[in-house]
Amino acid sequence: MQRKLKQFGLFFVCADLSGMLKTLKRKYFSLPLTLCFLLLFQGVGYANIQEKSLSAGSIPQNHKLTQRLRNRLATTSDIRTKLKVWIYFTDKGVMAQASVDKRLDEVRQGMKDRCVWRRMKVRSERNLVDFLDLPLFPSYTDRVKTIVKQVRIASRWLNALSAEANILQIQKLERLEFVRKIEPVNSFRRSESFIYQVSDSSGKKQSTPNADYGSSFDQLNQINVLPLHQLGYSGKGVLVCLLDVGFRKSHEIFQHANLISEWDFVNEDNDVQYDPFDPNDYSDSHGTGTWSILGGYKPGELIGPAYGADFILAKTETNRFEKPIEEDYWVAGIEWAESLGAEVISSSLGYTDWYSFEDMDGETAVTTLAANRAASLGVVVVNAAGNERGKAWDHIIAPADGFDVISVGAVNRSGNIASFSSPGPTYDGRIKPEVCALGVDNWRAANRDDGRDYYSQGSGTSFATPLVAGAAALLLEIHRDWTPAQVRSALINTSSQCMAPDNDYGWGIVNAALAASLDVNILKLQSFSIDDDNNGESFGNGNGKAEAGETIELFATLRNDGQTAALSPSGTLTCPHPELIISPSQVKFISIHPFTEQSSESPFVIKIPPFFLGHHVVLRFKVEGVNILTLYESIRITVSR
Questions:
Q1: Catalytic residue selected from 229, 251, 286, 395
Q2: Can 286 be counted among the known catalytic residues?
Q3: Which pTM value belongs to this model?
Q4: Cis ω for the linkage preceding 584 (within 30 of 0)
Q5: Catalytic: 244?
């Protein structure tokens, strides 16, 4: 009681009630204060008295409250409304260097071997751990828990707790000497279109040049993953963490996945799969999709770039559209993943509510700070740029603004930027996104309401991100000593427009095989042309288009982006439409030296019947040779009416 009344500016030294009243009258001559004390003594607590006198909009004025929190409090009409806030501490309860060293040594001894190995790539044994690795001071956290009813997460890196508190509780918190700052937990309320646009898999399977990849062929071929798979790379031994809404682990696509660990930060349990009997648990379809795109494996249906990696899964949000996604779970998730030794983080989440574009500066949003910290500890952090193009926000989202974060934009199959893919730059003028991958009509695993497995298409930078994260895992398998900076540099300096980056595509579409910097040849279809000019074997009107009733010549040009010559490659062209006759269906190329182009020595000849009108034809193009990594490509032509 003495402590509570002292906070009002009163101090009583009394032995009993009558004595206390006399002291109060003598010192303050205040009837209202006397009545206040009587109420308090009779059982009406401090908080209840204050609630009667504190009107809505009466906001604590201590400098510890950030302006963002003041703004939020100003819009809160009911003082009993609970807000989610970050409570930052001034220190971690130790001052003497000897005590700090002792506690750091304790942290070092408790680290996982995988975490130590990864940190050693960017740090020495001397500074392997630092002050930010120390746990929060228990006395501070215990004191906060006596004020608030629910503490959400504790962050070592931020030296902060997130908790739910009303205005009255915030007043109490700000008076604590060890509290440095209080600010709101920010969020992102995403629309349904951000998550996915579902199409049932029936009738959607495509004819692809390599049947093993099924309908996932295009999304891997566009970023040139297939040569690395041919060389035997699959991300084996690399620990990848996905932060998402939840994951259907029982889906057939994950039958061969090596799952190391999992944690549900929303429901505080060790199962990230949807529980239909838990009213607080929600769909896991989005996470199922992102994981399958990155690491799924079902030949003939879907293969992810890093299907052989080790995985840890963190559920850091709910999928309810009306419920905002809070950033504190993401921070907890990335700290947990780093402690387990994660080498790659794939995150399709982002946070903008209560932030402004000025905050997208790489050093303000708490998720960005956590992402920067993880990168500094040797983790490759890959995050969606966001789906905000053309919307009110119209910028990238946190933590994609991080200095060392590889932010990912979305393109379609033609390589054009998606209509929704968030543009850069950051507020401080840095180019974003870093790179792009397919994010329109991606092939992914999905869930039916009845629990059955199926596959569907989905769009968003959410689905471009795991492709790039999978490519990063392949690079780390090939180069186990590479740091996050080296992975980022390899990706951006080999992407499709690395010589002229901009704030739509960044450095362009990823080329995983080229980024791997291997002593091999890496062929790609540079271009093709159609000849129907009545010369040679062609027969047509000479407009350079494929039309019904014509015989066309198709010339293919290959480019070698590898470091060794491709010796005498041969190309084969096939078509799923038996009405089209391709003869010859195989052509030869002379040897193609590194970083040069070469057209086929002769053309493919295609006879189109007169009745074959208005068709969009996908031709399968395959290039092989003695010392050549097999190239699989699709050539799309439209037969005009």
A1: 286
A2: yes
A3: 0.84
A4: yes
A5: yes
